[in-house]
Design brief:
The complex is a heterodimer of chains A (118) and B (228).
Chain A lengths: L1 H17 L4 E9 L6 H12 L8 E7 L1 E5 L5 E4 L14 E5 L3 E10 L7
Parallel strand pairs in A: 1-2
Antiparallel strand pairs in A: 1-6, 3-4, 3-5
Helix pairs in contact in A: 1-2
Chain B lengths: L1 E10 L2 H17 L2 E7 L5 H8 L8 E5 L6 H7 L5 E3 L14 H7 L10 E5 L6 H4 L6 E7 L6 H4 L1 H6 L2 E5 L11 H11 L5 E3 L8 H18 L3
Parallel strand pairs in B: 2-5, 2-6, 3-4, 3-5, 6-7, 7-8
Classes of the chains: A alpha+beta (118), B alpha/beta (228).
The structure holds guanosine-5'-diphosphate, magnesium ion (MG) and zinc ion.
Zinc ion binds next to loops of chain A.
């Protein structure tokens, strides 16, 4: 059900930026640490976007790996398991450099007229 | 008709964050410290509150009850003679699975903020979504009961990482369930290194004094960290 909340937040963001234009594609960047299941997100996105300008839009998901950096020893590494202590020095003072994204990167919209002169 | 790609680069939760900041400003103005209490359904949020909120010394406390079990939880707390406001989270797909900043905002007019030092918001029982939606709180506390098993932190890192304090409840059940406290704490430390925890039982009262003291000291501590 988490993906339902997340897809609602994505659709709200997209609708705001679309400003009434029909949306044909949405590109999102999802950090590994957000625990979003891509197939589940796709399912709920389709559901939540019905009767909005996003209806039928393609959802492109980029999963961003979780990268950490230790403030003590500067060691940087990528995690698959939720283990956040530095493996080199055991420090708890570790920064998440990527993996917490929940971002609408871009949208593709339809525009009635071309504003660029030919 | 032609298609154009528009760069957005916006966090999908920005809209929620904006409202949370507005809530926070209102809480700060009223001088009330806000706790967001989160857990899986049935971990013991209401039970712990029942046991500690009636006796917080000079701290004036109120509760915003957001759990989905109707007004039952609110009734249980009302006997403590503290202000309790029930938030209606019905609607949406069979009840909400979390509180968001806007739901809390809608409840602000019915809360006696000026008369409170501390407001505890009992979130909807859910181990994922509440961690995503800030509501304007100062601290997030999570209750995890030992009945849920010792690998919970590994399965729900998002929530355990969001909490600034973890309450390990139902410790009275230790002789009856297969739960190794050391293993749980080991997993907790892996997921959220250094996060403080308290072991307790809302049934027997064990460990509740420490949490009560923690709550009593919280408003002064928060005010020191965030000068008005
Ligand atoms: N054995 C035991 N049961 C508890 C304890 N705390 C709560 N419970 C029981 O767990 C159930 C759920 O508690 P409740 O406070 O409603 O959980 P909430 O959904 O998180 O608010 C109730 O039946 C409580 O009586 C505890 O420390 N020990
Ligand atoms: Mg409850
Ligand atoms: Zn290190």
């Amino acid at each position: 059900m988490h993906e339902l909340s997340v897809s609602s937040a994505i659709v709200d963001t997209v609708v705001r930026h679309a400003a009434g234009r029909r949306v044909t594609a949405v590109e999102v960047r999802l950090g590994r640490l957000r625990q979003v299941v891509p197939t589940s997100l796709a399912f709920y996105f389709e559901l939540v976007s019905r009767e909005t300008v996003c209806e039928g839009a393609r959802l492109d998901q980029e999963v961003v790996p979780a990268r950490l950096r230790c403030s003590e020893c500067a060691h940087a590494w990528e995690i698959d398991m939720p283990h956040f202590r530095c493996p080199e020095c055991e420090s708890a003072d570790v920064n998440v450099e990527s993996g917490e994204e929940l971002e609408v990167a871009s949208i593709e919209v339809e525009e009635a007229e071309c504003t660029v002169s030919r | 008709m032609h298609r154009v790609k528009v760069r957005v680069v916006e966090d999908a939760l920005d809209a929620n964050a904006t409202i949370a900041a507005a809530n926070r400003a209102d809480f700060d103005r009223a001088g009330v410290t806000v706790v967001n209490l989160m857990s899986a359904p049935g971990a013991g949020k209401t039970s712990v509150l029942e046991r500690v909120l009636g006796d917080l010394g000079g701290i004036r406390v109120g509760v915003l009850e957001g759990d989905v079990q109707g007004s039952l939880d609110a009734d249980r707390l009302a006997s403590l003679h503290i202000p309790v406001t029930q938030l209606n989270t019905d609607g949406g797909f069979g009840g909400e699975c979390h509180l968001d900043a806007n739901m809390v905002r809608s409840a602000l007019p019915s809360l006696p903020l000026e008369d409170l030092d501390l407001l505890v918001v009992e979130n909807v029982g859910n181990l994922v979504c509440p961690a995503e939606f800030r509501i304007g709180e100062d601290v997030r506390i999570m209750v995890s009961s030992i009945a849920e098993g010792e690998d919970k932190p590994l399965k729900y890192p998002l929530m355990f990482r969001a909490a600034e304090l973890v309450l390990v409840n139902k410790i009275d059940l230790l002789p009856h369930v297969d739960f190794d406290l050391d293993r749980f704490l080991h997993h907790l430390d892996a997921v959220h290194p250094g996060v403080p925890h308290m072991v307790m039982s809302a049934r027997t009262g064990e460990g509740l004094d420490a949490f009560r003291d923690w709550l009593v000291e919280l408003p002064a501590r928060v005010r020191r960290e965030v000068p008005a």
